[in-house]
């Protein structure tokens, strides 16, 4: 199966044509071999589950400190100071990961259940009053944009830069195309505004940011590093969750039988949210850099070369999954790679799943049907798959 390509080598995974419907292209790359060469960019790409997993987990061969975008930091310096967790290898990564893992501990997350549920109920009230809503703006953006900055403890002012910042961060990983240029145009205004809300003096004393600054008090990192880790929360935690919720809404709207299963048993809301992440992969791709030679079959990846990992393709690889293109809320999704794998696996995974669980549990209790009124509009991005508009009618239960 798959689409006809004159040559796999000509694929541009950052073009509108590709991003509009990446899935047939993924199949073509998977079928072409364990690793393929994308000549346009002079990079390697892995699209099968096993090879994506291997590239992720072998962090000594496939490093992050040269950047997880197409650009090699060693030859071309990045536009923002590198992340000290995402764009880092051990031993730096080990130390910073520990700090964020502790800040996001199960105990910390438990304290968010109640405020998140309160916001979800209030949102459902407002949505049902209107009936017809934009699922992108009114749900997928509205909910995380409220609960996540609250959880971090950000001041109310200054939050409005967050969406433009996310656009920057996730377009930055791609090539210098139009998406990159447009998003980066905001950088001179947005970057300093972001740094300003990562200061201890402005965050609340009982949020996630305060937990990170406590690591500085304990001597585990410098003050500047603590601020950088708060920035990492802002970079990584918002757009990804917005797009996950948007993708889940589209899945539920397109598969009313699956929504009925969630309504019948709201305790599967979290699993259903996870299945939509497997199927749609809000994080579609990112890169590693080979720090030494590695073989994929008889193909050699050489030291210094970039490898593009197609998470979205791994998550639908028929070599791994039964009926990979079907949305099945009863599926065992544990092995999907939408949150990564190995030492760099998403440290905010449980927070994101908590948001999804609580929001869709509230929906399941009170919304009988999520009806798509028109085709949703994709929002193109060099890394993320999301929607700028999802015209919905919500039917009260
Ligand atoms: O630390 C950071 O700034 C950071 C930025 C982006 C961490 C993670 C991510 C990220 C999340 C990248 C999901 C790709 C996919």
Structure description:
Helix content is 48%, strand content 12%. The chain has a single domain, classed as Cytochrome P450 (Cytochrome p450, Orthogonal Bundle), CATH 1.10.630.10. The model has no long low-confidence stretch (mean pLDDT 96). The longest helix is centred in the N-terminal third of the chain and has 18 residues. It has 17 helices and 12 strands. The relative contact order is 0.18. The chain starts with 15 loop residues before the first helix and ends with a strand. With 397 residues, the protein is an alpha+beta fold. Helix 8 runs antiparallel to helix 9.
Structure summary:
The protein is of the alpha+beta class. The chain has 17 helices and twelve strands.
How much beta, percentage-wise? 5-15%
Provide the domain count. 1
- Uncertain spans: none
Order of adjacent strands in the largest pleated sheet = 1-2-8-5-3
Instruction: Give the helix proportion (percent range).
Output: 40-55%
Structural class, judged by helices and strands? alpha+beta
Helix-strand pattern, N to C?
Answer: HHEEHEHHHEHHHHHHHHHEEEEHHEEEE
In round numbers, the mean pLDDT is 96
> What overall geometry do the principal axes of the alpha carbons give?
globular
CATH superfamily, by name, is Cytochrome P450
Q: How is the biggest beta sheet arranged?
A: 5 strands, mixed
CATH topology annotation? Cytochrome p450
Query: Given the structure, what is the number of helices?
Result: 17
């Amino acid at each position: 199966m798959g689409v006809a390509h004159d040559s796999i080598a000509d694929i541009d995974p950052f073009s509108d044509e590709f991003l509009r419907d990446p899935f047939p292209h993924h199949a073509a790359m998977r079928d072409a071999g364990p690793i393929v060469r994308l000549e346009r960019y002079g990079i390697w790409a892995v699209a099968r589950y096993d090879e994506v997993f291997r590239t992720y987990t072998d962090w000594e061969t496939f490093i992050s400190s040269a950047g997880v975008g197409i650009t090699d930091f060693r030859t071309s310096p990045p536009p923002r100071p590198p992340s000290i967790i995402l764009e880092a290898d051990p031993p730096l990564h080990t130390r910073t990961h520990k700090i964020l893992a502790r800040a996001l501990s199960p105990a910390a997350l438990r304290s968010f259940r109640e405020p998140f549920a309160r916001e979800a109920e209030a949102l459902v009230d407002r949505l049902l009053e209107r009936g017809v809503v934009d699922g992108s703006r009114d749900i997928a953006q509205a909910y995380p944009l409220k609960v996540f900055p609250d959880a971090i403890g950000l001041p109310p002012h200054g939050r409005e830069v967050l969406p433009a910042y996310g656009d920057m961060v996730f377009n930055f990983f791609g090539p210098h195309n139009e998406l990159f240029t447009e998003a980066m145009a905001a950088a001179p205004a947005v970057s300093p505004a972001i740094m300003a809300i990562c200061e201890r003096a402005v965050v609340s004393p009982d949020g996630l940011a305060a937990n990170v600054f406590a690591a500085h008090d304990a001597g585990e990192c410098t003050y500047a590093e603590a601020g950088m880790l708060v920035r990492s929360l802002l970079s990584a935690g918002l757009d990804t969750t917005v797009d996950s919720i948007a993708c889940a809404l589209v899945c539920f709207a397109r598969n009313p039988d699956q929504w009925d299963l969630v309504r019948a048993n709201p305790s599967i809301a979290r699993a259903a949210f996870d299945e939509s992440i497997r199927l749609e992969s809000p994080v579609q791709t990112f890169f590693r850099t080979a720090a030494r030679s590695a073989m994929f079959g008889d193909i050699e990846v050489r030291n210094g070369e970039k490898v593009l990992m197609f998470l979205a393709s791994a998550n639908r690889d028929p070599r791994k999954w039964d009926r990979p293109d079907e949305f099945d809320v009863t599926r065992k999704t544990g092995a999907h790679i939408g949150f990564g794998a190995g030492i760099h696996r998403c440290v905010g995974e449980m927070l994101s799943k908590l948001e999804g669980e609580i929001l869709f549990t509230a929906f399941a209790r009170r919304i009988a049907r999520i009806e798509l009124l028109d085709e949703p509009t994709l929002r193109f991005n060099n890394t993320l798959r999301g929607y700028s508009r999802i015209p919905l009618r919500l039917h009260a239960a």
